[in-house]
Design a protein that fits this description.
Elements (H helix, E strand, L loop, with lengths): L1 E6 L3 H10 L5 E7 L3 H11 L3 E2 L2 H6 L3 E4 L3 H13 L3 E5 L6 H14 L3 E4 L6 H4 L10 E7 L11 H17 L3 E9 L8 E8 L4 E7 L6 E8 L2 E6 L4 E7 L8 E7 L2 E8 L8 H14 L8 H23 L4
Parallel strand pairs: 1-2, 1-4, 2-3, 4-5, 5-6, 7-10
Antiparallel strand pairs: 7-11, 8-9, 9-10, 11-12, 12-13, 13-15, 14-15
């Protein structure tokens, strides 16, 4: 039985808690949250003890789940690691790069399981492509959300775009040669909308747009590679592949197109998207990594790399905003 404590029971924390309390081989020992309103509702609904001192809860558990504001991530992780506890921490891993680099060293020294909550890795639409050979040369991403004051403690880069940064880095598997970025703060003190171009040494280019002041929601990624176009709708959980037909594509819907070099046959594939709960899946994998001594699904280096790119983007935006206009 894995004894776990949850830190932060706001909107997302409550979702985590609802999954953990029904999970096999998991015992939720208690929760920590400085908000009396959050604490009262959770304690009443789940009959789980509230702790007002983080260290006291950490001492009683094998692992902690951090769903607190990003500014608190490092301190909670540091205390837990110095006590040899396993950690699941929501993205972004930390607030600053210095904190992230220190955390990497602490994780290595503590020799514990440390997983970062990049939940889109477990989105059913993305998982449907697990067996497909992804080698994109151009990626286009739009992640748009309606304005919500919750989450504006960090920029749209760390709040929304970091999901796509992580996915892109996991797909491309190449080092970055250049980053261009522009962004604007509209409703908060940090950028609320941004457009970013990431160029990789293997020739791939990723164009990412994120906004938290949109009138509609959108979470779409389009991959273009030599033999195919792949569309992923993270919001509606749909995936489609349009590619040149091969002998293995018998049974798929096909379309003949006349080109200057002759007739081409296009095959359209809609891979099966198995419905699942992405948050539950990532938490179950975290549990299994501890109880079965398996590697975590998204490790501390993954978290560091995504955060590093996010901060490079923020620096580019800051530099552009401060540059004198002609």
């Amino acid at each position: 039985m894995l004894k776990i404590g949850i830190f932060g029971v706001g909107h997302l924390g409550k979702i985590h808690l609802s999954q953990l309390v029904t999970m096999k081989d998991v015992e939720v020992v208690g929760f920590y949250d400085p908000s009396n309103a959050n604490a009262a509702s959770v304690a009443e609904l789940y009959q789980i003890p509230r702790f007002t001192i983080a260290e006291e809860l950490i001492q009683l558990v094998d692992a902690i789940d951090i769903v607190a504001p990003t500014t608190l991530h490092f301190k909670l992780c540091e205390i837990a690691l110095r006590n040899g506890k396993h950690i699941f921490v929501e993205k972004p891993m930390t607030n600053t790069m210095d904190e992230a680099k220190t955390l990497v060293k602490l994780v290595e020294e503590a020799n514990v399981k440390f997983q970062v909550g990049h939940v889109e890795r477990f989105n059913p639409a993305f998982l449907a492509l697990k067996s497909y050979n992804l080698k994109p040369m151009f990626i286009e991403v739009h992640r748009l959300a309606e304005f919500n004051p919750r989450g504006t403690d960090v920029s749209v880069i760390l709040d929304l775009m970091i999901h796509d940064i992580d996915i892109v880095l996991s797909i491309v598997q190449s080092t970055i040669s250049r980053i261009s970025a522009s962004g604007v703060a509209v409703m908060s003190d940090t950028p609320d909308i941004a457009n970013v171009r990431i160029e990789f040494h293997n020739g791939c280019v990723a164009n990412l747009t994120s906004s938290r002041i949109s009138l509609k929601k959108m979470r779409k990624m389009r991959l273009f590679q030599k033999d195919a176009y792949i569309g992923i709708d993270f919001l509606d959980k749909k995936t489609e592949i349009i590619k040149l037909k091969t002998p293995e594509d018998e049974g798929l819907f096909t379309l003949d197109i006349e080109t200057n070099s002759g007739k081409k046959t296009i095959a359209i594939d809609n891979p099966e998207v198995k419905q699942s709960n992405a948050i539950r899946m990532e938490l179950e994998l975290f549990r299994d990594s501890i109880l079965q001594n398996k590697p975590v699904a998204v490790n501390v280096i993954d978290g560091l790399q995504a955060l590093d790119v996010a901060h490079q983007i923020l620096q580019k935006i800051s530099k552009n905003l401060s540059a004198p206009s002609n």
